[in-house]
Request: fold
Amino acid sequence: QFAYVERTDDEYVAGVAPYYHRVQRVADQLTVIDDIEAGRSDDAIVKLAVYTPGPVAPLAEATLAHFADTQGLDEATVLEDMRRAGLDILPGGGAEVFAPAMRAKLCPEKISGERWLRIHGLAHGMGMRTNCTMLFGHVESWEDRIHHLERLRELEDESPGFVCFIPLAYQPRNNELAAAGPTGEDYLRMISLSRIFLDNIPH
Reply:
């Protein structure tokens, strides 16, 4: 996975044709974006190519928000377009840590925690399933972690639809935070707390 931070002359959108032979070897699932056509609001916004059985989860929440922003649409419209095109589940990426002060330090360029939660609530209301995540072991506090879990639990109570919670351990290399990352004990504590706290999320 890679991205350009700023627009450049050599950026591109990859079509599906070069990946056909790879897709056929996938054991579980793979979905790819075939084409992106700006300015369209029907179910051809994104053409989903699905080659193996399983849930279709090709687009992160930030991408959906980007489509809404750049095409002048609301998030519900974009989600409904995607659902009709074959989107089954949201992967849950980009949640990081919901606490606003921590999010401003960790990932100010990403959508807000409130917007992330709103998109998931809309998806659940349409009958879609989603995953939820949290990035931990960097510069956040235990209070930040509990606040994050509390917001996920509240959303699941209000609008059920989460399939699983995935705690993502911060990787200390190749980034500017210079944090040490979680210890083995910290990881086990995080898993234990999430299993107890999020008893309304299946996995």
Notes: Residues 24-54 have pLDDT under 50 and may be disordered. The chain has seven helices and five strands.
